Every structure is written in C-alpha cells, then in structure tokens.
Amino acid sequence: MDYLMVDFTDMPKCNGYKALLIFIDTYSGWIEAFPTRNKLAIQIARFLLKEIIPRFGCPSTISSDNGPEFVQRINRHLAEAAGLKWRYHCSFRPESREKIECANRSLKAIITKLCLETHLPLLQVFPMALYIFRTAPQTKYQLSPFELLYGRSPALFKHHFQGWPDLVQKVGVEARKLLLQLQQHNNHVNKLRHYMQECRPPPITTTGHNYKPGDRVWIKHWKNEPLKPRWKGPYTVVMCSPLAVKTLEGRSWIHWMRLKPADQSDPVTYQVTKTDRPLVLRFKKNTPC
C-alpha cells in the first residue's frame, strides 16, 4: 500500500457514528474504512497512526480533496514527520478522485443490501461488507484486492458445518492432491500479479499544456451564470504539473483545460491627438498590419 486515497463519506447515524473514513490503495484496490463520530482532521491522524501505518507500513503518498478536514495543520505536520507526500486533487475535477468515489458507492451498496437482508444494524454488518468488497474481482483480470495484496486467494472455512456437503468425500479428491492444486493456483496468482506490475502504465512525463511559472492565465468559472463573466483573472502561474497548474492567488490546483493564456493577442495600443477644445483628447485604436 504505497499510494493511498482518503475521503470522508456520510452514513446513517448509528450509536453516535455518523461518518465513514475510507482509505483505498490505488494499485490493488484494498479498502480500509472506519466509522467516526465527526469529520475532523484528528480522526485522520489517529487512524493513520493506529491502524494504517502499524499494519501496512508508511505509504509514500496520500491524496485527498481540498476539504477543511484534510488541509489542517495536523495533517501537514504528520506528513512531514512520516516523510510522505500529501497531495490534493484538482478542484471541480471528479476524475482525479474517481477510484475512491467508486469505492464509496460500492461499499454503501453492499452495506445497504446486507442490512436489508439480515435486519442487523449497520455496525454489525460492516466487517462482512469489507470482506465482500476485498474479495470481489474488480479489475479486467478478474482479480480481487485480496489476491493483488497477498498474492493468494482468501481462505475459506476449514471445518465442515452441519448441513454442508463434504466435498472431499463427494468427489473423491485426496487431501494431498487438493493441497497441490491449491499451491498451483497460488503460483498462477503470483504470476498474474507480477504480470500486472509489469503492465502498469509508466508515470506521466509529458505535459498536456505549455504553461510555465510566470505566465498570466484566465480561469474559467465552473458555472455559467447569466450576466456574469465566464472567466476570472488574470492570475500568475507559480507551479506546474503535467495536468494542472497552481496560481499565486489561489490555494488549489487548477486543471489545464480550465485555463487560457491572458495574452492571446497582440497588445492594444492607441494614438492620442489633440482637438480644438483644450480638455478633449481623441483616442484612435492602432490596428496591426
């Protein structure tokens, strides 16, 4: 779990818990979720130090949106102390947090179905909902987050319960032969895992824009309101990434598709001439040849 996404989502109030803190690994899709009583930055730091880092190690990067609970000083100090990078998604760009938003929707659907079928409160079906999400095939290779993280299929029940068929006696497969088949299956899963690691797309090295620090740009408003300008600015670019820029006047990163250069045409100049009246001047716009 090297690159994590974190987000808060609402849930029905149950025993004082009204929010859900979700962490997801961007590579394997492994999810960790914790019910919380509020949406505060201290909750994120607490679960990182008590649950995520002791169990999976310290991630190299954590990304989140620009919500007030994520931009607090305590998160920045924690990132500096742990030596990890805390990145923020582009505002009004749902594609940048698509993976965790899809996980939120899928986890809520599983919890809703379990509550309706079992008539149990939310907190009691929550561990089983996490198990279903982690063991369900999600990628085009039909591998679950459990298989991608641990390199093997999740273990099933080892004891036979009353009413369950004894598959070993029914099909006549010996225990040693079954163990060999399971080992072969585990080897195939490991080969698929290595293959997926080799097929991962390379990091983005080319930029989709030509902006550089010092440029003046206009930023397009997200909503097109009547009788209001569609562009605001101009602003000065101070930082650039392959797909977004950060301005001197703003706090969040802006996707390059919402920008346009402030100097798109030649500067407009005027020619000033005096008139017969001493307090009147005549301005004439110079047109380029």
UniProtKB/TrEMBL annotation:
It holds the Pfam family rve. It comes from the Eukaryota. GO terms for biological process: DNA integration. GO terms for molecular function: endonuclease activity; hydrolase activity; nucleic acid binding; RNA-directed DNA polymerase activity. The keyword Transferase applies. Keywords: Endonuclease, Hydrolase, Nuclease, Nucleotidyltransferase, RNA-directed DNA polymerase, Transferase. Coiled coil: none annotated. This is Uncharacterized protein LOC117674724. InterPro entries: Integrase_cat-core, MLVIN_C, RNaseH-like_sf, RNaseH_sf. Residues 1-153 form the Integrase catalytic domain. Gene3D superfamilies: 2.30.30.850, Ribonuclease H-like superfamily/Ribonuclease H. The gene is LOC117674724.
